[in-house]
Amino acid sequence: FCVAPPPMAAAPLYCVCRQPYDFNRFMIECDICKDWFHGSCVQVVEHHAADIDVYHCPNCEPIHGPSMMKKRNNWHRHDYTEPNDGTRPVQAGTAVFVQELQTRSFASGDEILVPMHGSQVTQCYLEREGFHYPIVVHDLDGLGLKLPPPLFSVSDVEHYVGANKVIDVIDVARQADSKLKLGEFVKYYYQPERSKVLNLISLEFSDTKMSNLVEVPEIARKMSWVENYWPDDSFFPKPFVQKYCLMGMKNSYTDFHIDFGGTSVWYHVLWGEKIFYLIKPTKANLALYESWSSSPNQSEIFFGDKVDKCYKCVVKQGTTIFLPTGWIHAVLTSQDSMAFGGNFLHNLNIGMQLRCYEMERRLKTPDLFKFPYFEAICWYVANNLLETLKELREDNCQPQGYLVDGVKALISSLKTWLRREVRECFEVPDNIRPSRLIKALTKEIRYLEDESNKAGKSQGSAEWPLARSSLEKGYQAQRAARRKLPSNLDVLELHTLEVLKRLEVGPLEEVKRPTSPSTADAIQGMLSMAGLLCQQASAGGDILQQHWWSSQGNSNSNSSSDTWDSSEPCSAPRSPEGEDGSLGEEYSYRESSLSPPLHPSKRHAPNPTPISNQATKGKRPKKGQATTKQRLGKIMKMSRHKGLFL
Ligand SMILES: O=C(O)CCC(=O)C(=O)O
Ligand SMILES: [Fe+2]
Ligand SMILES: [Zn+2]
Ligand SMILES: [Zn+2]
């Protein structure tokens, strides 16, 4: 039998219902009468069709007997009918794989996870410390995350979202994606014996009644590019990727991937348990990931074995985890689970976001698996950051380092996109003059560099114009600190650090992860006691110091994407602590007015029809993309964010 859209003749009629072909509905062909049948009319769901060898429709069944099912020959291959002659390797997601995964050893997540209290996860904290390591939150107080009650069930989701909602579900053992209605999934979920492990990770519910039950963590709302920069009147539909409900059956496995567009992501496990396998997005790891992603036998290679370190992190119920930009992760759902999550782009790691996006392009990731209108949003962001830079310049105030780096990376990508010869998906918004915008941004950056060079030449004296008002005294402090001009403030700062170092139980040089909030807050507390409000201070080290997460020294205006694209051999991953591993080399303290201000044009869009990637909306492939037949014939590799077709 086959499952395919039949050839389009003069609107022929099909199925027991005698309806014309509808692209949006799954159909199956009877191997006897050759007519086509809607899965829903003959009670065959798409993922079950994969188990049918010879299909007999309800008309033919009385004469020819029931359909014949495929025979299972193995438990370790996506195609369970392959003969088990011991020659073929184990593939990701199969029963054998999941069993073996549990016996593998990993570095402990404790080495990298930053445990924080909900109230500590603030924009200020992330701007100060950077967002380079996963954060775990056990005490949700102050996180601004609203959730349904802990006993909220799979059938409650059906109640709020609607049984007819078409969803994309992953058949884990085949790592294949298929569509079914939420009602069918829920029915299957509650069956006492399940023959398949199904994982639902792509149910975006912003446009459903369930939306009111969940509020995204405040940090994800505050930092989100879409929330801050997507204009009300955008020609492009607003992307909705911030509210997912994940319902996974025990032993679901999602193979290693980077979330679409290099989005950062939060997950909260409402009940059940998920195990995250985490890999740092070092240059070396990203290069390995890219070649693994494009290798033909990807499913037979456990990516965790290819890298220096893969961390295992068990996320128990009631826990929230935040993954920063670019972190490569796989997820095992160790018990039936319900989790909520959401993705967001932000200003803290713009260079890395762009590198992830460029990688998706090189890997030819289909649009359905990418951040919707990623380039459009970059243009909006660039437009807004230009205003930010101008305002800061007019106020004689220097932008934070991450923002300068981000804008440089953005300029470099925007230039590339503008130069693209074939404008296959030209996403420059109408009201933006791209060349003019790039020029203006470049000018702002050049201005900042000139100032910084001038300051460098005349070390020791404050080069910036005197503050115009007492309000700006803080700015002076920031400038001095940022540019490493020795000042009284720096002396005090060094002293403070010295004191703190002595207060620490162990030598800070051995801290193997970013400063814990308590240390950072202690620093901040002391400095604020000293009446200092500032940012990006760095004691002793060079502010331009390179970390494993930054592609190049800040002085290179062409930094991120260019370096990433270059064919130079990968350098070994750097230690997260920077060159000497000391805490003191870069920490910061600030006043909130220095967060990139939101441009007045930024208001929330009124709620147009949500659009999203395939993961989110359970849409049918668009014209020109894989059809049902292709999708079952050439089984699509899963992972909504990886999006490779075999
Ligand atoms: O829970 C899962 O199986 C996958 C979660 C994840 O990483 C994702 O949805 O991007
Ligand atoms: Fe993910
Ligand atoms: Zn029908
Ligand atoms: Zn038939």
Automatic annotation (TrEMBL):
Residues 205-361 form the JmjC domain. Residues 631-646 have a biased composition (Basic residues). Residues 550-567 have a biased composition (Low complexity). Residues 550-646 are annotated as: Disordered. It holds the Pfam family JHD. SMART domains: JmjC (SM00558), PHD (SM00249). One of its GO terms (biological process) is chromatin organization. Its main location: nucleus. GO terms for cellular component: nucleus. GO terms for molecular function: dioxygenase activity; zinc ion binding. Keywords: Chromatin regulator, Dioxygenase, Iron, Metal-binding, Nucleus, Oxidoreductase, Transcription, Transcription regulation, Zinc, Zinc-finger. PROSITE patterns: JMJC (PS51184), ZF_PHD_1 (PS01359), ZF_PHD_2 (PS50016). Residues 12-63 form the PHD-type domain. Belongs to the JHDM1 histone demethylase family. JHDM1D subfamily. This is Uncharacterized protein.
